[in-house]
Target: Integrator complex subunit 5 C-terminal domain-containing protein
Amino acid sequence: MFCRQLLEYLLQKLEYESLLPDKTIPLLMSAAEEINIVREKFLDGNQLERYSLARVLILVCYNQPSEFVSTISYFLQYSRDDQTLALLVRIVSGTITMHTPNDSPDINADTERYQNFIKTGVEYALRDAMLSDTTIKRYFVEGTSTSEHKTYLHYLCLNLITLLRWENSTRVVQLRSRWVSRAVEAAAGRAAAALCERAALVRVRAPCTPAQLDQMHTCHALAEVLDRIDMSGTKSPPPSVEVILKVVQATVKYFFRCLHEKDIMDKLRGVQTACRLLRKLCIHSKLARAVALRDLLETAMFREEKVFGSRSTVANAITAGKDWTNEDLLIHLNQRHGPMTQLTQSHTSVFHAGVIGSAGRHNSDNSAPVSPALSHHTELLMGALMACMDGDTGIAEGATSVSLLLVELVSPDVMYNGLPWPDEDFTKQVSIERELYMRGAVERSAVCRAWLWRAASARPALCVASALLRAAAATLLHRLRAHLDRHTNSAEMARERAALTELLSTMTLGQLLPHPLCHMLELAPELSASELVQVLRDCLWNYTRDHVPSPALFTGDSSGIHWRDPSTCKPPATYTDTLRLIIQKKISTLGHLYPIMFLNLEQDAA
Model:
């Protein structure tokens, strides 16, 4: 008891002497010289030693700001429990309080000065932790490391998360000035760069260093640190454009890295964190929204397409080179013969289905159905895209932006990407190869098909993707005409019917086909190939050619919901007579649809 009282008296005397100007205290000078030994005692000393050393360290930091910065960096890197972090809070708050007493005439200047010291300490901690992860460690060489060992950057992030959690709880008085959040916000660019590097699937993993450990735990911790700070500028100055772009790009990489997680709960937690980050960034910045949407869509289509069940990579300028086989070369495609895509009144012989002497081309295994896990990945991607669109007008603008971007990425050039539909003969004589390419690109990409369905429900976003719908309709017309009725039961015809069903479903959901044209989806399974050609040409193609699918056709309200008024978009008889005649011809099987489709039209006409 006497020793404790003596120690307390000495510490109080030391604190009093430190306040005197130009006073040199040998004990503090010695502690500053042996600062490494003093700090190490915080990790393995008892409670009395740590408490006493904290008071000594406050005085050292009070006299030497450089030691204040290095102390913050050391504690953030090597603290392994909450008690040590609590001592860090005490040291920081004690040092600031000694420099900025309540009656100080320049309290704001001193507070801002020490806030800059704290920012520097956090930046040093990030830098040193990243360097430590590239240093060879003895326990890796000796093979004594455990599977639970974490990287130094991971420990640093865990300590920052704990401090941020204490700060957000508002229970710790010493943290109410938000000095932790402000310091981490200043280092957000460096943290985003670290996340971007570690979220990459292919990266340098030096042997015998922490870099060879599993990096996903570190990625999760870095993402949580970024998620806990304010990036909107409401509580502190908004981040710079450079920092916003770095965080967006790192978040997108982290999102796709989470999709490779084997544990479903870790995957979902990581995806939710990424979506929260994207939502917070995009709701206040249109630049962040544009960059995030483009990065998400480009990565999903061209770099991570296998995660979503896409059957092959769409050839594009941003993709790597591909080893083409003879079956993919145009010079060999020109030698094919068969019923597929023999364009009427055309001399082209491209895109046939067989080779003379080799029978028909074998179907690829890529036509296998997509597994539920890959479909789940597609839904997660759609959720991430929608997270970027939250806000007052975010969904309408964002969905339109994604649809425009999809057309840009899929189409091989910038020609004929407008909203109007040309004459059918134009596609047959000018742009059929382009339409075939675009349809194949969409069919191979599960992301494209999923987004077209999502855009149909986010009206009028589907209108700006008119070029993709036009490509599908044009190729269906020519392929169905080439089949005629001789190949009605073939596998190719079954695929064409499935593609037709998908096209009609999407256009109907997007309200591009008014009543009664929207009922073509119910008629299609009962029609022959020649009848399908008539319906597609006379009803779907001619109507969309004369009535351009435009966002101007849709009206919206204050909630951002858009729709097309059925009373103002009734199609003339020119576009419905073909449907009427076909139903009358097959009245025994399709008669139940006649009153649904035409009864109201006849009453209105009367």
User: Anything to note?
Assistant: Residues 313-322, 337-342, 344-355 have pLDDT under 50 and may be disordered.
